[in-house]
Specification:
Helix 2 runs parallel beside helix 7 and helix 4 crosses helix 5. By secondary structure, this protein is of the alpha/beta class. The chain has a single domain, classed as Rossmann fold, CATH 3.40.50.280. The chain is built from seven helices and five strands; from the N terminus they run H-H-E-H-E-H-E-H-E-H-E-H. 48% of the residues lie in helices and 15% in strands.
Length: 171
């Protein structure tokens, strides 16, 4: 099968949007506090699982989180839940952000959660972003997603939320 190698631009979010976004500086400070407290920045894998080959949003979100101070792992396109879980474990991430634009999230998120459990890493936080029907949000949370970020979510606000989730889980 095709193996696309993802590449991520850096600095675009900070230079174009960051200064106009009221929570940008606050989000950067929260990330810096996390880094100081835990000895490393929060590490986020942005995953494209299944047959969803729409990667522009994945790259934009990953780039924005990098500009806020997160360490980023950009998942390969078309990974299986097993492959994504293995990558997350190998990279020792705190969070897997599943980018869903092709409506596979209700099947793929529970499979990812199960694969992480098989690898004894059920502690890795799963969040979901993308085109998520409102009726699917509570279902995804019941399936183990810590948060769901639909279109229009302000990235710095989601980063603050994610840091709060990590702080609550890690102590």
């Amino acid at each position: 099968r095709h193996q696309a190698v993802p590449a991520m631009p850096r600095g675009v979010y900070a230079s174009q949007i960051g200064n106009d976004e009221p929570n940008f500086a606050f989000a950067k400070e929260k990330v810096a506090q996390f880094t100081h407290k835990f000895g490393r920045p929060p590490k986020l894998m942005v995953a494209k699982i299944g047959q969803d080959g729409h990667d522009r949003g994945q790259k934009i979100v990953a780039s924005a989180y990098a500009d806020l101070g997160f360490e980023i792992v950009l998942g390969a396109l078309f990974q299986t839940p097993n492959e994504a879980a293995k990558t997350a474990v190998e990279e020792n991430v705190h969070v897997i952000g599943v980018s869903s634009l092709a409506a596979g999230h209700l099947t793929l998120v529970p499979q990812l959660r199960n694969e992480l459990a098989k690898l004894n890493r059920a502690d890795i936080v799963i969040v979901v972003g993308g085109v998520i029907p409102p009726d699917d949000v509570s279902t995804l949370k019941q399936m183990g997603a810590a948060a769901v970020y639909p279109p229009g979510t302000i990235i710095s606000t989601s980063a603050i939320d994610l840091i709060e989730v990590l702080n609550a889980r890690l102590g």
